[in-house]
Amino acid sequence: MKMRLNYYKVLGCNKDSTQEEIKHAYHRRLLQFHPDKNDAVDIQEFHDVKEAWRVLGYPQCRKKYDAACKQEQLEEQDSPVYARLTPHELEESALEDTLFYRCRCGENYFIERQALRKKNTVLQVMCDGCTLIIIVET
Ligand SMILES: [Zn+2]
Protein backbone atom coordinates (compact mmCIF):
# COMPACT_ATOMS: atom_id res chain seq x y z
CA MET A 1 0.00 0.00 0.00
CA LYS A 2 1.56 3.27 -1.11
CA MET A 3 0.48 6.67 0.03
CA ARG A 4 1.44 10.19 -0.81
CA LEU A 5 0.09 13.40 0.50
CA ASN A 6 -1.45 15.60 -2.19
CA TYR A 7 0.17 18.90 -1.29
CA TYR A 8 -1.92 20.89 -3.72
CA LYS A 9 -5.10 19.62 -2.14
CA VAL A 10 -3.74 20.30 1.33
CA LEU A 11 -3.23 23.95 0.44
CA GLY A 12 -6.39 24.21 -1.64
CA CYS A 13 -4.67 25.10 -4.88
CA ASN A 14 -3.70 23.13 -7.97
CA LYS A 15 -0.88 22.22 -10.29
CA ASP A 16 -1.43 25.32 -12.43
CA SER A 17 -1.38 27.75 -9.52
CA THR A 18 1.37 30.39 -9.66
CA GLN A 19 3.90 30.67 -6.81
CA GLU A 20 2.02 33.77 -5.70
CA GLU A 21 -1.28 31.88 -5.53
CA ILE A 22 0.33 29.08 -3.59
CA LYS A 23 1.71 31.59 -1.11
CA HIS A 24 -1.75 33.09 -0.60
CA ALA A 25 -3.30 29.66 -0.23
CA TYR A 26 -0.69 28.76 2.37
CA HIS A 27 -1.38 31.87 4.45
CA ARG A 28 -5.10 31.24 4.27
CA ARG A 29 -4.63 27.67 5.50
CA LEU A 30 -2.22 28.74 8.23
CA LEU A 31 -4.84 31.05 9.69
CA GLN A 32 -7.47 28.38 9.36
CA PHE A 33 -5.47 25.64 11.03
CA HIS A 34 -3.15 27.42 13.40
CA PRO A 35 -3.51 25.81 16.85
CA ASP A 36 -3.19 29.17 18.62
CA LYS A 37 -6.11 30.57 16.71
CA ASN A 38 -8.42 27.64 16.83
CA ASP A 39 -8.46 24.93 19.47
CA ALA A 40 -10.82 22.62 17.61
CA VAL A 41 -8.20 22.16 14.97
CA ASP A 42 -6.59 18.89 13.94
CA ILE A 43 -2.87 19.31 14.68
CA GLN A 44 -2.06 16.82 11.95
CA GLU A 45 -3.68 19.07 9.38
CA PHE A 46 -1.61 21.98 10.57
CA HIS A 47 1.53 19.92 10.11
CA ASP A 48 0.39 18.81 6.67
CA VAL A 49 -0.04 22.44 5.66
CA LYS A 50 3.49 23.28 6.77
CA GLU A 51 4.87 20.22 5.05
CA ALA A 52 3.06 21.16 1.83
CA TRP A 53 4.49 24.65 1.98
CA ARG A 54 8.03 23.35 2.50
CA VAL A 55 7.68 21.62 -0.86
CA LEU A 56 5.38 23.80 -2.96
CA GLY A 57 6.70 27.08 -1.59
CA TYR A 58 10.04 26.61 -3.31
CA PRO A 59 10.04 26.33 -7.11
CA GLN A 60 12.93 23.83 -7.13
CA CYS A 61 11.25 21.50 -4.62
CA ARG A 62 7.92 21.95 -6.32
CA LYS A 63 9.41 20.90 -9.63
CA LYS A 64 10.82 17.75 -8.06
CA TYR A 65 7.52 16.97 -6.40
CA ASP A 66 5.62 17.41 -9.68
CA ALA A 67 8.09 15.12 -11.41
CA ALA A 68 7.71 12.45 -8.71
CA CYS A 69 3.92 12.62 -9.00
CA LYS A 70 4.10 12.29 -12.76
CA GLN A 71 6.41 9.30 -12.42
CA GLU A 72 3.98 7.73 -10.02
CA GLN A 73 1.12 8.19 -12.44
CA LEU A 74 3.15 6.45 -15.13
CA GLU A 75 3.89 3.53 -12.83
CA GLU A 76 0.26 3.43 -11.89
CA GLN A 77 -0.63 2.82 -15.52
CA ASP A 78 1.37 -0.42 -15.42
CA SER A 79 -0.95 -1.93 -12.86
CA PRO A 80 -4.44 -1.76 -14.27
CA VAL A 81 -6.72 0.22 -12.02
CA TYR A 82 -9.90 -1.64 -11.17
CA ALA A 83 -11.60 1.26 -9.38
CA ARG A 84 -11.09 4.73 -7.99
CA LEU A 85 -12.91 5.08 -4.72
CA THR A 86 -13.60 7.27 -1.77
CA PRO A 87 -13.33 5.72 1.70
CA HIS A 88 -17.09 5.40 2.17
CA GLU A 89 -17.36 3.10 -0.83
CA LEU A 90 -15.33 0.49 1.05
CA GLU A 91 -17.08 -2.22 2.98
CA GLU A 92 -16.80 -3.14 6.62
CA SER A 93 -14.97 -6.38 7.21
CA ALA A 94 -15.12 -8.83 10.10
CA LEU A 95 -11.92 -7.27 11.37
CA GLU A 96 -12.61 -4.05 13.15
CA ASP A 97 -9.54 -2.20 11.90
CA THR A 98 -9.80 -3.28 8.28
CA LEU A 99 -12.10 -2.38 5.42
CA PHE A 100 -12.33 -4.19 2.13
CA TYR A 101 -13.46 -3.92 -1.46
CA ARG A 102 -14.31 -6.91 -3.58
CA CYS A 103 -12.30 -7.47 -6.75
CA ARG A 104 -13.75 -8.93 -9.94
CA CYS A 105 -11.44 -11.94 -9.51
CA GLY A 106 -13.27 -12.93 -6.33
CA GLU A 107 -10.49 -11.90 -3.96
CA ASN A 108 -10.43 -8.70 -1.98
CA TYR A 109 -8.54 -5.48 -1.45
CA PHE A 110 -7.88 -4.88 2.21
CA ILE A 111 -7.37 -1.38 3.58
CA GLU A 112 -6.45 -0.57 7.14
CA ARG A 113 -8.77 1.94 8.71
CA GLN A 114 -5.72 3.68 10.10
CA ALA A 115 -4.48 4.50 6.60
CA LEU A 116 -7.71 6.32 5.79
CA ARG A 117 -7.49 8.71 8.71
CA LYS A 118 -4.96 10.93 7.02
CA LYS A 119 -6.76 13.34 4.73
CA ASN A 120 -5.80 14.33 1.19
CA THR A 121 -3.82 11.22 0.44
CA VAL A 122 -3.94 8.77 -2.42
CA LEU A 123 -3.70 5.11 -1.47
CA GLN A 124 -2.89 2.37 -3.91
CA VAL A 125 -4.01 -1.05 -2.83
CA MET A 126 -3.19 -4.28 -4.60
CA CYS A 127 -5.63 -7.11 -4.93
CA ASP A 128 -4.81 -10.23 -2.95
CA GLY A 129 -5.62 -12.43 -5.92
CA CYS A 130 -4.60 -10.63 -9.13
CA THR A 131 -2.56 -7.72 -10.48
CA LEU A 132 -5.31 -5.12 -10.37
CA ILE A 133 -5.14 -2.20 -7.98
CA ILE A 134 -7.66 0.17 -6.51
CA ILE A 135 -7.00 3.80 -5.73
CA VAL A 136 -8.59 5.34 -2.69
CA GLU A 137 -8.54 9.12 -2.30
CA THR A 138 -9.14 10.35 1.21
ZN1 LIG B 1 -8.33 -9.30 -8.07
From TrEMBL:
Protein name: J domain-containing protein
Every J domain range: 6-69
Native species: Atta cephalotes (Leafcutter ant)
Listed PANTHER family: DNAJ HOMOLOG SUBFAMILY C MEMBER 24 (PTHR45255)
Keywords carried by this UniProt record: Iron, Metal-binding, Zinc
MF-aspect GO terms: ATPase activator activity; ferrous iron binding
Keyword Protease attributed: no
Taxonomy of the source species: Eukaryota, Metazoa, Ecdysozoa, Arthropoda, Hexapoda
A matching Pfam family: DnaJ
Gene3D superfamilies per the UniProt record, alphabetical: DnaJ domain (1.10.287.110), DPH Zinc finger (3.10.660.10)
Family: Belongs to the DPH4 family.
Keyword Metal-binding on entry: yes
